DNA sequence: ATGTGC
């Protein structure tokens, strides 16, 4: 990125002032090094977002930001409905409520290693993965609507989990305000057999080791010790979320003119929060959030079954579940005034600081666990929300590394089989339905997640707690 | 990300 137009506001904070068509400044959080590597498109896209009606405070880009559809991935933007604020399908992303959850197992690495191969095989057997993968669950139209209304709470009621899991999920596992009627029949049809499936791309289920602890006090509160084995699941709302995105993008493109919104480009398609289309999208998107929460809950149930077979009596306890593709109604202090705004986080994680009332009681003092998924064969991180992130970026932080090259480029450079062998030599067992998928997800096809974590930590967006290293990776 | 796109 050409940083000559930016003003430095701190060691990890850069600003493009409001002006031209920008109603608010663009704020990029990054080290100088990450900023220089960042795609110029991030600044263009964040600047376009800054021109949308009703935007509050600033158009933000996180240290892991990269070029996305309309809004940058790693973008955060809040809109006030009273000031003509908008909601945008491209501002949420196609994989609605894609996110990460991490489960504690109580096992140590030495317990796991003798059974790692057999556990990898078992997990791969019970977790359907890959493009278009189908699970064992079939939802009738009535059940589909109940799932879209109830999220992970619905899944637990069906027997796929425990009530205490819900305490450790945003919105207690059920996003209010979902409207199944706003979800197209086609979207529902695509999801009929996809509950409890992992999908493809960078979605995974990993068995990981707590490899380093940076904040012993918080780690203890999270139940994390060095050498502990944890399970992380990264996936989203599958075909349903994707179809909702597709459907509403189309609707928002054709409606923008009728709402008198000047779009700097078509991909920024949006609708006023107070318009019928805006409300309809919010209802559908919230249903998509519930679909993702239910999906991760069912995958958790499947992982528990696999673990029970290999390690009888072992209990998988949910540490936390975060979403990183959402638009949520929240109260934030803006210019000294508490306001009700709609915060788009696209490839950005909510990161509530210590004491926030929305946190479960036993985590409130510590702050929200912020789960940062790595890519296959690389580190993942657990961070915690800070006191400063509310003021900095509506309590938001990074979500992961982000790609460094295209899928196509990656498949030219590597063969899946070789990647699997190299990872096995490093003690990482990969199970995947697609060798090409493995090549596309090669560790070096991604940016170094450690650098973006360091930048988020230094910027004050979230604080480092622990690093996780993969041992088993189940992929699509 | 996606019943992948060129």
Automatic annotation (TrEMBL):
Protein name: tRNA-splicing ligase RtcB
Coiled coil ranges: none
Pfam families: RtcB
GO molecular function: GTP binding; metal ion binding; RNA ligase (ATP) activity; RNA ligase (GTP) activity
Biological process (GO), any one: RNA processing
Catalytic activity field: a 3'-end 2',3'-cyclophospho-ribonucleotide-RNA + a 5'-end dephospho-ribonucleoside-RNA + GTP + H2O = a ribonucleotidyl-ribonucleotide-RNA + GMP + diphosphate + H(+); a 3'-end 3'-phospho-ribonucleotide-RNA + a 5'-end dephospho-ribonucleoside-RNA + GTP = a ribonucleotidyl-ribonucleotide-RNA + GMP + diphosphate
Organism: Candidatus Methylacidithermus pantelleriae
UniProt binding sites for Mn(2+) 2: 234, 324
UniProt-listed SUPFAM superfamilies: Hypothetical protein PH1602 (SSF103365)
Domain of life: Bacteria
């Amino acid at each position: 990125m050409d940083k000559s137009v930016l003003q430095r506001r701190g060691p990890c904070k850069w600003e493009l002032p409001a002006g031209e068509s920008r109603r608010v400044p663009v704020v990029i959080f990054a080290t100088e090094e990450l900023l220089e590597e960042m795609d110029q498109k991030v600044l263009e896209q964040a600047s376009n977002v800054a021109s949308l009606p009703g935007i509050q405070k600033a158009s933000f880009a996180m240290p892991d930001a990269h070029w996305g559809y309309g809004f940058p991935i790693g973008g955060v933007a809040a809109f006030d409905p009273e000031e003509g604020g908008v909601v945008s399908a491209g501002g949420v992303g196609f994989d609605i409520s894609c996110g990460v959850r991490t489960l504690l197992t109580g096992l140590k690495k030495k317990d796991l290693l003798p059974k790692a191969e057999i556990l990898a095989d078992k997990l791969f057997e019970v977790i359907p993965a890959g493009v278009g993968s189908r699970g064992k669950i079939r939802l009738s139209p009535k059940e589909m609507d109940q799932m879209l209304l109830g999220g992970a709470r619905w899944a637990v009621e069906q027997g796929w989990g425990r009530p205490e899991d819900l305490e450790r999920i945003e919105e207690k596992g059920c996003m209010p305000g979902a409207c199944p009627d706003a979800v197209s029949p086609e979207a529902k049809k695509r999801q009929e057999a996809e509950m409890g499936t992992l999908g493809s791309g960078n979605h995974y289920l990993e068995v990981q080791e707590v490899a380093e602890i940076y904040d012993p006090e918080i780690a203890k509160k999270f139940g994390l010790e060095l050498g502990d084995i944890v399970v992380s699941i990264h996936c989203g709302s599958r075909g349903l979320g994707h179809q909702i995105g597709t459907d509403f993008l189309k609707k928002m493109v054709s409606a923008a003119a009728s709402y008198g919104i000047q779009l700097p480009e078509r991909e920024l398609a949006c609708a006023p929060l107070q318009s019928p289309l805006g409300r309809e999208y919010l209802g559908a998107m919230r249903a998509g959030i519930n679909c993702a929460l239910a999906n991760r809950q069912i995958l958790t149930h499947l992982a528990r079954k696999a673990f029970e077979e290999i390690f009888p009596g072992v209990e998988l306890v949910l540490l936390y579940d975060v979403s990183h593709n959402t638009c949520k109604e929240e109260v934030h202090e803006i210019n000294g005034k508490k306001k009700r705004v709609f915060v788009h986080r696209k490839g950005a994680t909510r990161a509530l600081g210590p004491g926030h009332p929305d946190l479960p009681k036993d985590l409130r003092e510590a702050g929200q666990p912020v789960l940062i998924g790595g890519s296959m064969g690389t580190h993942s991180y657990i961070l915690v929300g800070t006191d400063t992130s509310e003021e900095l970026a509506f309590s938001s932080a990074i979500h992961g590394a982000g790609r460094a090259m295209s899928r196509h480029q990656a498949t030219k450079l590597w063969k899946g089989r070789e990647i699997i062998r190299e990872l096995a030599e490093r003690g990482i067992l990969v199970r995947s339905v697609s060798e090409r998928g493995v090549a596309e997800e090669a560790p070096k096809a991604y940016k170094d997640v450690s650098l973006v974590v360091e930048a988020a930590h230094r910027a004050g967006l979230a604080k480092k707690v622990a690093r996780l290293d993969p041992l088993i990776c189940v992929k699509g």
